[in-house]
Amino acid sequence: MSATTAADAPGWLASQKSRVSGPVATTIGLGLAGGLLLIVQASLFALLANAVIFDNAGLARIAPWLIGIAALVLVRAGLVYAAQQSAFVAGRRIKTAIRARLIARLGTLGIVWQRATPTGDVVNTLTDGVEALEAYYARYLPQSALAALIPLSILVVVVPIDWLSALILVITAPLIPVFMVFIGRGAEKLNQRQWRRMGQLSGHFLDALSGLSTLRIFNLGRREARLIARFSEEYRLATLRVLRLAFVSSLVLEFLATVSIAMVAVLIGFRLLWGDLGFAAGFVVLLLAPEFYLPLRNMGSVYHARMEAIGAAEGIVVLLDEAESGPATAMPGTEQIGLAAGRAPYIELRDVGLCYPDGTPALRAIDLAITPGETVAIVGASGAGKSTLAGVLLGLLAPSTGQVWVDGIDRSQLDAGYWHRFCAWVPQQPRLFHGTVRDNLALADPAADDATLWHALERAQARDFVAALADGLDTAIGERGLSLSGGEIQRLAIARALVSQAPFVVVDEASAHLDRPNEVALTAALAELGAGRSLVVIAHRLATIRRADRIVVLDAGRIVEIGTHNRLRAAGGPYAAMLGEAPR
Ligand code: ADP
């Protein structure tokens, strides 16, 4: 995560304002209207008190004023309610928009990125992080406008009535924001630190949960519990530090406001005594003085919301940034450049090189064409660049140099979503989703009927074990395939790819040791998958790819050999050496 993005967070927050300018302006307008009515209400109240105390006014005379004040109270309550509603709309709108953007970004990020990023961090950003933005747009923005507008309106009223009180208000008012900014500086850093701790804690907790069985096997449960306890404790302390600062800052602001009001009150008291000031005028100023400071004091609490949002925005900015520097994303309006529907395109990589953002060169000068219907296997040692090449072929990673052409069209000209309709991807550890076997298969084609699903299962060598499940296609399976073996999960994923009818499929073959029957089944399933499709298999087991049309051998990001099994074996090069290491 780059260090510069943290500083971008306030700028980014401000740049998103336009998404909610309507509801925020409404909230401000309603708040201001409420503030103006309050001035009217205070004036009415002062006149009423004046009439009762000095003119001995009876109930009949003051009744209309009382009714007026009651009506004002009701209208103001309505305005507060409406302002809260529009603030809520602003919050909801921004959260929905940012979440949609983040999820869309995550969708365009490659497999390799997902492997390298802690899930806990991402989840934290998507949930609590986005949630924390609400307070910024729904409370901080409107409140900061009102903190200027309401005191100004009150001042306009007070100056002609009593310039001396107005002068005290003008002199003391800036103290509050000045102190706030002063305290806020430190708090901002504390908040960002606290937010990072929260990310660490979530990431660590998620890792610990997913690796629970491993931890048990190695008897590391206690050590892990101690680690989590330590992280939680650090998070607790960080939270308390932030809260302490927030409370201290509120205390200071309250104190300043109280002292200022007292000054106004004492001076009014003396002048009333000396007869320099009329009762109604003095009373109205006294009533308005606390209202003058109230929006400024409220700023203290919403300023805390702002800092929390900045802390959260840091994670969001990093995620969006990574996504933006990641693979090519959708180019709207380019769908008119079309590929032939339902047919595998001719895919050509020309002089493709790829460097990861950290500078790791993963692919160099790759020239490779995949003709429609061909089965190509990619082999090579761990770290040779197989997954990266698969990512480039699928359009999940954008090459740093060179181009990818599909049917003679530069793929970067195609909409990413459009291109992905032609692709299916079977990862090493396919994810099944909560739901039935049918739900999982029909993801690829919701309209597929049972006969189609069974046919796909049969071709993927998965029919027998699905038929043996208690409820067949209706058996509920969990995220990790509940009671299915790794080989079975992968064959279900192959069946899913068969249902999808995508003409270009990339399979990252399971590297876990498969027993002989599973290996035979996988080989047969891959042969079915390759029939009539272009198929690229990242092979970890040489036995399953003997019949591939071509085998591409990668080493340190370069293609070092291409050919059929027989030819490469006869050539006695790197592939033959790999066969020698793992004879089968
Ligand atoms: P393979 O699939 O053959 O094991 P990869 O394509 O995963 O190889 O990796 C190729 C090279 O790129 C390796 O040196 C690996 O360390 C590096 N690499 C992979 N993913 C990333 C990443 N997200 N950031 C930086 N380097 C990466």
Task: Describe, in plain words, how this protein is organized in 3D.
The structure is a single chain. The chain has helices spanning 4-15, 21-54, 59-108, 111-116, 119-161, 163-172, 175-210, 212-217, 221-274, 279-324, 386-394, 416-420, 437-442, 450-459, 463-468, 486-500, 516-530, 565-571, 574-581, and strands at residues 347-355, 361-370, 375-380, 401-406, 409-410, 423-426, 435-436, 476-477, 504-508, 534-538, 550-555, 558-563. It has 584 residues and is an alpha/beta fold. The protein has 3 domains: 3-321, Up-down Bundle (ABC transporter transmembrane region fold); 344-422 and 504-584, Rossmann fold, CATH 3.40.50; 432-501, 3-Layer(aba) Sandwich (Rossmann fold), CATH 3.40.50. The strands form 3 sheets. Strands 6-9-10-3-11-12 form a 6-stranded mixed beta sheet, sandwiched between helices. Helix 14 crosses helix 16 (486-500) and helix 16 (486-500) runs parallel beside helix 17. The model is unreliable at 1-6 and 325-335 (pLDDT under 50). It binds adenosine-5'-diphosphate (ADP). Residues 112-113, 116, 356, 358, 360, 362, 380, 382-388 line the site of adenosine-5'-diphosphate (ADP).
Topology:
Elements: H1 4-15, H2 21-54, H3 59-108, H4 111-116, H5 119-161, H6 163-172, H7 175-210, H8 212-217, H9 221-274, H10 279-324, E1 347-355, E2 361-370, E3 375-380, H11 386-394, E4 401-406, E5 409-410, H12 416-420, E6 423-426, E7 435-436, H13 437-442, H14 450-459, H15 463-468, E8 476-477, H16 486-500, E9 504-508, H17 516-530, E10 534-538, E11 550-555, E12 558-563, H18 565-571, H19 574-581
Parallel strand pairs: 3-10, 3-11, 6-9, 9-10
Antiparallel strand pairs: 1-2, 1-4, 4-5, 7-8, 11-12
Helix pairs in contact: 1-10, 2-3, 2-5, 2-10, 3-5, 3-10, 5-6, 5-7, 5-10, 6-9, 7-9, 7-10, 9-10, 14-16, 16-17, 18-19
Bound molecules: adenosine-5'-diphosphate.
